[in-house]
Amino acid sequence: MIELVNRSTRTMQKLIIDDGMKRVILKPGRLKIYRTVKLKQLIFGVLSLVAIVFTLVNAVSLHILPSVKKYLLPNPQIGYFSSIPIVSFETSMARLTVVDIATRDLNNRTTISRRLMNADREEITISVVALIQPNDMTSEKLDTSKLKVDTSKLSAAVRTLVSPPFASASLSLNTQSTSNVLIIGLGGSQMNNFLHHFFPHMNITVIELEQTMHDIALKYFGLSEDSNQRVIVMDGLEYLKEAADRGEKFDAVYIDACPTAFPSSEETLCPIHGFLDDVTIANLLAVLRGTGRV
């Protein structure tokens, strides 16, 4: 039971608060303090309840959700992102590193990719490929350097490079296609591996300037060579000139000739400047079939 007390010059009412077994008479100033205390007690109680529920949910999740050990990779102290250097090597232009990148999203899905990087320009990825993950993956026994490359996948950047000859019908989408394709620039061999995976009869010639890049692609990026796919180590500009002189013809020419060093002063990195001069452009036109596309 509550009766309000209103003290003034004309009227006076009693304030009685029935608090359980007690009957307490409060003045107006004390009423305000009483309500403030009660409000603080209520807030404290609600926060305590939330803390208890949160603690219980986390305790239960440790038993219901998959073990963290199942998803963490060789660096267990970085729960959602691990960078694992595999090997470093020298080209004629720069020192490069092969790095495996493992990420885990909030749904505990793990993806692992392999990247070719230049430590001087870490914001630039020279090449990236997806790796095939084992079904039983634990940090204790997983060595990412031994994982195979998934040649059926392309990075978003390379998709835009691969698709134009197919869009213009220079290359057929028939998986039995025997089209003649020239790729200048091997890198991590992502593009030629993808084409060879889905079009095993396509005749693919890759030109690579650096022998070291060829060796690294064979060992770490899933490059395989056979009668329908080969890598020739030589200058791409020289190869174009010789191919034009021989009268070779290609259904598509992909130019992915980029430097392995990336000076920030350069406005255009890919392709290298030699592929933009008139002589090289003339050689490109000479090696294309009538329906061919660069």
Automatic annotation (TrEMBL):
<keyword id="KW-0812">Transmembrane</keyword>
<keyword id="KW-0472">Membrane</keyword>
<dbReference type="InterPro" id="IPR029063">
    <property type="entry name" value="SAM-dependent_MTases_sf"/>
</dbReference>
<keyword id="KW-1133">Transmembrane helix</keyword>
<feature type="transmembrane region" description="Helical">
    <location>
        <begin position="42"/>
        <end position="65"/>
    </location>
</feature>
<protein>
    <submittedName>
        <fullName>PABS domain-containing protein</fullName>
    </submittedName>
</protein>
